[in-house]
Amino acid sequence: MRTDDRSIVPDSTTVAAVVLAAGLSTRMGQFKPLLPLGGAPMVARGVESIQSVGGIGPVVVVTGHQSERVRSALADLDVRFAYNEAYEQGEMLSSVQAGVRALPTDAGAFVLALGDQPVVKPSTIRLLADTWRRTGALIVAPTYEGRRGHPIVFSSRCIPELLALHSNQTLKALLDRDPNEIAQVPVDDPAVRVDIDTPQDYECVLRVWQRRSQRREAMEAIMDHPDQGKPDSTRSGLSRRGFLKGAGVSAASTVLLDGTLAGIAEAQAKAGEPRVTGPGAVALTLRLHRKAPRVEAEPRATLAQVLRDELDLTGTKVVCDRGACSACTVFLDGTPVCSCMTLAIDVGRRQVKTIEGLADGEELHPVQAAFIEHDALQCGFCTPGMLMSCAGLLERNSNPTFGDVRNAVRGNLCRCGTYPKVFDATLAAAKAMAHKKGA
Ligand code: FES
Ligand code: FES
């Protein structure tokens, strides 16, 4: 099948792969995909591991940070490249979407592998791909000791939904779906739970790699000497002692290797477990109007409280304090939300914009100017929230109908009854913005 329409799901058992190597490696302090592992860059080890399985391809490597260096590090491997322009934002979703767009349209599924998981066993990858071929499940994910890990196989049926995810969402939106649609495959491979995020993780993985190499060499020595069972005197080459030594190294290495990986997996799982914070104040850094103010707030503090009480941004009004009036509307990553219903601690890295940031310097936002021109306020208490809802509408829809405007402010309560003028002002602002764009 040759089509670029991703909504058409191919009837194919072809499994491709997407390997993520675009991020900034902030926690590591060095660029992870190019860290050496057994004489080759880590990302190359990950690709080799996938390709050693056989029957998986093509492999698309997503680059971003240090793109050219990654490309030249993989020059000898048969891979395709995709570039994530948004790599600096550090969100995995944009890399996944870039990789998926570069997949052949006839792939029935793809393995999503992290560039910092070079020691996942090829047998694990094969098991996941085979499980997908056998079951046709929407998603096939490995679990180790009951916890889900990577790599994950996604059916191409996921692709339209995956590409439609907004930048403020994560892959969890797909992974948290009905458990019946996800095949969880228990694997005896702790590496599926291990990311190499810190120099300490890297040290451990280096040790694992060394032991794995020792084990491989020992096994090769055994395979090279099929006369191992004969009396020592009748054999040439490897002695009984040598054979036992080799087998011992192999068995011990397996135990040590899995033990080391399991240790990292457990430590990372613990680090990922919910942390108890509070009840005292905790330090928060908000991303607000191109600044990053630090505040101390109790975990129970709402965003509205922090904006008004800690940052003195009192343009955001609190009226009902229970999500019923929208007077407290602000933007989180461009989406209007009730700040009285959002805990400040949950804002994370999302960009906050309040009514104080709506104007562009001295120039009012067209909606603000139109509200003044159309006299769309009386007491003004609902007005900041009303303005944010209307501005949010015009961000999403540059040519709204009367019904669109009415829907956009249906949660904004105005006790003074300014609605007709709010509708007129918003429609006029839309026209003004279109005119300015066309000018
Ligand atoms: S004050 Fe937040 S919805 Fe009313
Ligand atoms: S202008 Fe008074 S509540 Fe809306």
Furnish the topology, listing elements before pairings.
Layout: E1 15-21, E2 36-37, E3 40-41, H1 42-53, E4 56-63, H2 67-73, E5 80-83, H3 92-101, E6 109-114, H4 122-135, E7 139-144, E8 147-148, E9 152-155, H5 159-164, H6 172-175, E10 182-186, H7 199-223, H8 240-272, E11 282-285, E12 287-288, E13 294-297, H9 303-310, E14 329-332, E15 335-338, E16 351-353, H10 366-373, H11 383-396, H12 402-408, H13 419-438
Parallel strand pairs: 1-4, 1-6, 4-5, 7-10, 12-16
Antiparallel strand pairs: 2-3, 6-9, 7-8, 7-9, 11-13, 14-15, 14-16
Helix pairs in contact: 1-4, 7-8, 10-13, 11-13
The structure holds FE2/S2 (inorganic) cluster (FES) (2 copies).
What does this structure look like?
The chain has 439 residues and is of the alpha/beta class. It has helices spanning 42-53, 67-73, 92-101, 122-135, 159-164, 172-175, 199-223, 240-272, 303-310, 366-373, 383-396, 402-408, 419-438; strands at residues 15-21, 36-37, 40-41, 56-63, 80-83, 109-114, 139-144, 147-148, 152-155, 182-186, 282-285, 287-288, 294-297, 329-332, 335-338, 351-353. The strands form 4 sheets. Strands 1, 4, 5, 6, 7, 8, 9 and 10 form an 8-stranded mixed sheet that branches. α11 packs across α13. The longest helix has 33 residues, at 240-272. The two termini are 45 Å apart. It binds FE2/S2 (inorganic) cluster (2 copies).
